[in-house]
Every structure is written in C-alpha cells, then in structure tokens.
Design goal:
single chain, about 190 residues
C-alpha cells in the first residue's frame, strides 16, 4: 500500500471544506464547542456506518468483478484531480441560517448518508488504497474505524478552531487551497504509477 499517498488523500480530503467541516465550524461559532460535540459525534457515527457500507460494497465489486479494480483506480485518480480543481476554484460563499435543532447527533449522523463528498471519499479510499492490499473482515473494519476516526477528528478540529480557522481561511484562502490541491494531485498521480 502506498502509505504516504493514502495518508495524504485521507488528510487532505478529510480536512478540506465540506458539509461536515463547514457545518461544524459554523455551529461552533454559533453555539460553542461543547454544544457542537453532539453534532461531531453524530458525524463520526454516521461516517463509520458509511465507511463500512463502502468497504463491503467495494469488496463485493472486487470479488465478483476483478477487472473493475483498474477502472476504479482510474476513476479514483480522476475524482481526486477533480477535487483538486474544485478546491483551487472554490469561492467563500457559506451563507447559513441554521437553527439549534440542526446541531444534533442525529443531524450529524444523517448528513453522512446525503453527503456525496463523504460517500465518494469512502468508495475512492477503500477501492484505491485498501482493497488492493487488504480484504479480510478485520482489515475492512479496522480501516473503516480509522477513516471514521479521521473524519471525526477533522470535524472536531473545524469546530475547535471555528472562528480562528474561519479568519485564517478568509485571509489565506487561496494559498491554503493551492497547497491542498497540490497534495491531492500528488496522491492521484502516485496511485496511477504504483
């Protein structure tokens, strides 16, 4: 397994802006870290379920259609390049009129099942980095736990540094996006030449 590429992909994809991170940052700014923890825990729980589903879905595909691995790798790399382009070209347009009931464990968990970034992240990470090297139940569960833990940590970090991180992004947004996009492009290229 190309560990560096795997970790870069996981970290960059988890810590870049997405529905989980943006909402956690906004809730922390609005309600405080303590009240936002239930949302973060819901994100972690929902993300674990989605990662397990992605693991077994990918395993099913790999076991029944072995030739799909090459195409999944290509699609995964293309998706990472697409994400890199989206990161570089993203605009700061987070207008939110959320109320307190959205800042809950249930809403954090439910968000994972309608979050295309999270679902595609799980399918790509598992198909590209995990299944070519590991496919036992124990491995799939452990990697799903790891991916869910990283997802929880990223959401928690965005909550923790909500107001500070928001100021940093508004001041250095372009530079941050360029660095994240370059790291994601490196990950995409490295899985193609493994």
């Amino acid at each position: 397994m190309p560990v560096l590429s795997f970790l870069l992909y996981i970290i960059v994809t988890s810590f870049t802006p997405g529905p989980n991170n943006i909402m956690a940052m906004i809730f922390a700014n609005k309600y405080g870290l303590k009240k936002t923890m239930k949302f973060c825990l819901g994100v972690g729980a929902g993300f674990l379920i989605v990662m397990l589903l992605c693991s077994y879905f990918n395993l099913l595909l790999k076991n029944f259609i072995p030739k799909i691995e090459f195409f999944m790798t290509i699609l995964g790399a293309i998706y990472m390049l697409y994400l890199a382009l989206k990161i570089v070209s993203s605009k700061n347009n987070s207008k939110n009129n959320d109320d307190d009931r959205n800042n809950s464990f249930f809403m954090g968990m439910l968000l994972q099942f309608i979050n295309p970034k999270g679902i595609l992240y799980g399918i790509t990470a598992i198909a590209t980095f995990i299944l070519p090297y590991h496919n036992s139940n124990f491995s799939l569960i452990m990697y799903s736990l790891f991916l869910a833990f990283v997802g929880f940590v990223s959401t928690f970090c965005w909550s923790l540094f909500g107001s500070v991180f928001q100021k940093f992004l508004s001041k250095y947004r372009n530079q941050f996006n360029i660095v994240m996009a370059l790291l994601l492009m490196y990950s995409a290229v490295s899985i193609l030449i493994k």
